Amino acid sequence: MSLLTIYSEHQPQQGKRFTDITVIKEQLHDIGVQFERWLTHEELASDADQEAVLKVYAEDIDRLKEQYGFQSVDVIHVTPDHPDKATLRQKFLSEHVHDDFEVRFFIEGCGLFYLHVGDKVYVVLCEKGDLISVPANTPHWFDMGENPHFKTIRLFTTPYGWVANFTGNHIAGTFPTLDQTLAELA
Prior knowledge:
Structural class: alpha+beta
Number of domains: 1
Strand content: 25-35%
CATH superfamily: Jelly Rolls
Helix content: 10-25%
CATH class: Mainly Beta
Shape: globular
Largest sheet: 9 strands, antiparallel
């Protein structure tokens, strides 16, 4: 289930939740974030490589490339047995911005995006079928959990891919983690 929770930046234990996709899209659109649900007619094997993944989603990827001028596309797959999962998690958990806007499409699994806009934090639980686009220079962070399981397509308008400028703000440590959020929903 996709989920949006909107918090005051100073009240990370009190948020307003939305589960209706239309409402999530509207709330995120108001802060310049694109949120979509994609479908595919072909089921991918869990060990599908980058080439197979990009082939299945070629039509949607081509549409976004044309619309936004994306120059590079890749697939990132992180599982509980990934040797660098703790390092990757810590890197993504620090609030940062990008000169480029960040686009992710979840092929499998889930992750939690936190968007720090003004005096609010928009927390988006993305799962299989969700596409999220974080505008350039929007402070944000991402939690993949202690035992991550996700595969996403990443699209970039630059040829060099993911480059973060860390803000130094420690706000990320005050909000519920992916694991806490999932436990609460269970």
